[in-house]
Model the fold of this input.
Amino acid sequence: MMDQQIKNILGMVLIGVLVVAGISAIVLTRVVYKSTDPSSSRTFSVNGEGEAFAVPDIAEFSFGVISQGGVNLDALQEDNVKKTNSIIAYLKEQGVKDEDIKTSGYNVNPQYQYFECRIGVCPPPKITGYEINQQVQVKVRDLTKAGSFLSGVVSKGANNVSGLNFTIEDPMAVQNEARKEAIERAQSQAKEVAKAGGFRLGKLIAIQENGGGAPVPYMAYGRGGAEDMAMGSADNKAIELSVAPGSNEVIINVTLVYEIK
Done:
């Protein structure tokens, strides 16, 4: 009789333990699900945009020397290298450092003469000469010299100048300023949304950021314009250019996700 009572008691205890374990498992599952799945909570998101302006401190441009001639490739290459080295030496004399001058391309292309096809016979094209195109990228740290460098490389033999861009060497400070403004605007909007919706603003769950670009800067020519820059003046001196770096605008967009209390 006593054994039966003990068995009954043990059975009831076991059932109680199983019930408690089952409830605990359900509660734990809900907690884990809610912590791993933000969509299980009531949330809302707001957007904010921040912008900051900075005057560029770096100018970059490319120059090229294009040499065309006959089939004597060695002589043509010697002419191209001589002119390119002369321009690089000029830039170094003006204070441009070695690390700010980089060869970006060197191409040798044959020039062909094509013949008309006769009946059943098509003569192969004939190489009549070569073209050598060497491109060099230059970084200018003193913007007051950018205009004189552009006209100077032309006077030294460059016959292809392009890609003048103004940039900020260390954009982090400008980006931080734009980011701060974007977050502050988003936070202000979140408070207004909560007030209008009649609920309390909960904790910040997530931040998403999308950066923006800067407008393309322009180059303003001084007296004479581009044509005179290439041709030079009557006394064979290059026309000096006036360049306008303007300002670079950094735009950052952020999205803040808040919990609704």
Q: What stands out?
A: The longest strand covers residues 126-140. The chain has a mean pLDDT of 80. The chain has three domains: 2-36, 37-56+170-261, 58-167.
